[in-house]
Here is the input.
Amino acid sequence: MLSLDSPISSLSGIGSAMMAKLAKLGINTLGQAVQYYPFRYDNFSQQTTISQIVVGATVNLVGTVDIISTKRSPRRRMYLTEAIINDGTGQLRLIWFNQPFLTRNIHEGDRLSVAGKISQDMLGVVMASPQYEKVGQTEGGLHTQGLVPVYRTVSGISTKQLRSIIDQALKLVDLADWLPASMISQRGLWPLTQALAKIHHPDSLASINKARQRLAFDELLLLQLRGQLTRQAWLTHQAPSIQFNQALTKQVLASWPFQLTDDQRRCAWQILQDLSHEQPMLRLLQGDVGSGKTAVAMLAMLNVAVGGYQAALLAPSEVLASQHFQSLVQAIGQHCSIGLLTRTQQAFSQSGQVIDKITKVKLISQIASGDCQLVIGTQALLQEKISFHHLALLVVDEQQRFGVEQRQLLLNKKLFHPNDSKLVPHFLAMTATPIPRSLALTLYGDLSLSVIKEMPAGRLPVITKVITAKQRQSMYQLVRQLLGAGQQAFIVCPLIDESDKLTAKAVTTEFETLTATELAGYKVGLLHGRLSSADKQTVMADFAAGRLQALVATAVIELGIDVPGATVMIIESAERFGLAQLHQYRGRVGRRGQQAYCFLLSDDHSDLAQKRLAAVAQYHNGQELAKLDLAWRGPGELYGRAQTGFADLRLASIFDQELIIMAKKTASEILAKPAWRQTIAARLTESDRASGWLPQ
Ligand code: ADP
Ligand code: MG
Here is the structure.
């Protein structure tokens, strides 16, 4: 038996090219392969014989190939491969388009299992573009029979290849349960081996649910255990006590162009209270996009700096880090020194003056000496070889794991207070993830919670419209009017391919079309994942400063970006996005109180797609939308679009109330029982490592 840690190359037929492609999916080990779950299933459970087929049904049948041949269709210039199979009860015609290589793989006399929809064309009954595989006399098919798993993949790995790889891994790897059998059975859960086998190859829809339940429980339990263990470790330390400087805080607030909302005030107060204690703060600040979380964090950072300590703010991307740097310099730069340090950028500001030309070495030495009081960076900052003079506050922005990793890394590195290893900084995570308060408390019980509910005064609800093909023209007309009046528009295109090549091509095409037609003569920028980091920043900076009127971007555009003049959000193929995600995009326009618009474009006319988009127009609440998305999950759809983007939760959802409560109780029980605590904590790090969850 192979172990979960064994490299994926231990399977037969996996060379270096395939390994590189699998790595893109996050599959480097066998453990990662068996935990690469399908997002839906093709239902080929209806097995039938040719004599019994009905037009319109999706079926699986097994027969022998009587004839197979490929020809070129004269009119449409494509390859047509036709075959006749025979199962003893009758003959059926199969047809494939543009797969000329099929005739090399399938030969007359082969036993073939095929699955697909029965339809009718001019020549009679046919199964078009069937899934197929050769089978022996006895064994079943992996690709054409029963509920067949469908995985997300990248170009270069076919679904069939991926399915075979995962299936091989399942057969070869030792899947011993990491939890005691009694604990699992008491809770009515399936053993791990069974759950993993059935999530990939379920016998029925009910077995998908049972399998999902066990695996989701594991995710939630891990989250709880890691959270609780980290909290315990963190709380054995002390943090510097930071005094609230009321006079300066008031003065700074008076210099800002807006007044804090009551919610911002309350959250800032809670944070400043925590900072005054020696017990390290562990707090989550939650608020919808645009609710003004950064302003709250700034007040905390300001007090830390003037109190004689350092604070660091980690952003999820370089673009956001440089945006945060600029807002901090503007808002509190008069009162403290601020550094920006990312992979490609460094800047330093003192008394509100920005020095652009500081070297990395110099900046790092100023961080080490304490001359740089506030440090803005990306999460990679923690991996850099920097040390702080005396870091008293760490703020992590827009992140979905609520800092368990960062905290573990920091504890291990002891990089805050080189002279006093007992000290850790206070910790603040910020998120726009829509999660109900009671659940947040259970799910992230290791963090205290501050919530900003109300939006800054004067924000108008974004007018949201689902746009049909016919309305496109008039939509662009309105957009041109708004651009003419000095406003700005985002045009977001969906991520097509995880490798990003196709996506970049698609947005580039969209950009070229738009600038040649509807937006000809306007200043339009282009942003996608394949641009260099410097180019991305230039484009973003030009857009934020109003030098560009519109921006065509992929869905990777930075979460949380703040473009003052943006009032239009156009989303292409909107049906491909999660509803909560659409809501987050919408939150990026109209941030200065202007009337803003969100246009949802879609060619998908199915009832479900229309219903989903209509919901975005109707509800202006991320939580509500996330819930609806989950409720409307299609049959056999495991998570798909409903996913709210939690890095740790793949099968579990934030609405799995019962499982969350069960996981929390179980985690406390495990940690309270010395024997369990030991064995499971040991397994925990092992399995965490195997799945890449923990830094090695
Ligand atoms: P998020 O919570 O999404 O991180 P930001 O902190 O980026 O939100 O704030 C969004 C915008 O709203 C910023 O430009 C900020 O200056 C502004 N803002 C923050 N608080 C207020 C307020 N109380 N009134 C008006 N505008 C505000
Ligand atoms: Mg933000």
